[in-house]
Amino acid sequence: MKYFGGCDVGSTYTKAVILDEEGKIAANTTIKSKINSEESARLAMKEVCEQAGLKSSEELTYLIGTGYGRNKVPFADENISEISCHAMGVHVTDPSAKAIIDIGGQDVKGISVDTDGTVKNFAMNDKCAAGTGRFYEAMARSFEMTTPEFSKLSLTAKNVIPITAQCTVFAESEVITLVGEGKPVDEIAAGIQMAVAKRCFVMAKKAGATDSITLTGGCAKNEGLKAAIEHVLNLKVIELKTDPQLMGALGAAEYARQKGMA
User: Fold this and answer.
1) Angle CA 249–252–254, to nearest 5
2) CATH class of residue range 4-88+244-261
3) Which residues partner with 244 through β-bridges?
4) Does residue 129 register a pLDDT over 80?
5) pLDDT for 160-184, tens place per residue?
6) Which CATH number fits domain 99-239: 3.30.420.40, 1.10.10.10, 3.30.470.20, 3.20.20.70?
7) Where are the alpha helices (DSSP H) in 28-167?
8) Which helix (DSSP H) or strand (DSSP E) does residue 256 occupy?
9) Mean pLDDT confidence for 217-245
10) Which of these, 8, 114, 190, 192, is most buried using a 10 Å CB contact count?
């Protein structure tokens, strides 16, 4: 049996996936990224190789690196951009999905997927951290909550308190002030989710979304954001059966499988 690997070294988390010859996931992991990208990749690959019963990543038929630190994946046969890998990952998970918003640790991308899983069009916001994973970590800190706890907070809100600041630093200061004034925390959280959803509008348009959108990255697990996007963009959010945070690594592994089986 041949095995194929994909390693997505992100700024916040590193993900790795191993596929068998049939394209089934044999192993996967998500770990917190280290300062050193190569160390992150080594740790993630060691973990998935052990899960798959392999001694090391050298036993893989083909390995592709992707993500922020894709040039630092040890033993990788080649590197492919995370935009292409997210598109392919979503395609093999749900071929009906044609539009993606990928919310990473430091950027937001809109991706349009072609019928074969390749990228038709894309847009990226990497000049501002607002609306990214780092932004949500900062917001959760303001509420003295974990990020998962914060992601559900807005779901109970009956009203929305708008957040006017566009910058992460100023938004965090604004939120702290509102909390200090005794405003309902769920309504403040709803304002944060609405602000991020509005920032996703341009990305959704670039991705060619008409009636539905798929979210990838760690923020795809944010229940409040999904609800806000459906409300603000009037689009149905398609939930993936496979962990949306794994899409980049899964797409890389699928590309590795295609190349290794050719």
Assistant:
1) 110
2) alpha beta
3) none
4) no
5) 999 887 777 888 899 999 999 999 9
6) 3.30.420.40
7) 37-51, 82-93, 133-142, 147-153
8) helix 247-261
9) 94
10) 8
Both tokens of 4, joined, read 């194929």
* Domains in the chain: boundaries: 4-88+244-261, 99-239
What span, in angstroms and rounded, lies between the C-alpha atoms of 222 and 224? 6
Q: How far apart are CA 34 and CA 232, in angstroms?
A: 35
Cα–Cα distance list, 12 to 7, 17, 39, 155, 254 (Å): 14, 17, 13, 26, 23
Q: How far is CA 1 from the centre of its chain?
A: 30
Amino acid at 13: Y
Please name which of 217, 206, 35, 251 lies closest in space to residue 132, comparing C-alpha atoms.
217
- Highest-confidence range of 51-60, 65-74, 162-171, by mean pLDDT? 51-60
**What's the CA gap between 209 and 193, in Å, rounded?**
20
Q: What angle do CA 7, 10, 16 make, to 5 degrees?
A: 25
Return the residue matching tokens 């690196």.
Answer: 65
For residue 148, the tally of other CB atoms under 10 A from its CB is 11
Q: List the structure tokens of 76.
A: 């990788």
CB 81 within 8 A of CB 119: no
pLDDT at 90 over 90: yes
Tokens of 77: 């046969």
Q: Is beta strand 13-19 parallel, antiparallel or unpaired with respect to 25-32?
A: antiparallel
Query: CB neighbours (10 Å) of residue 11?
Result: 17
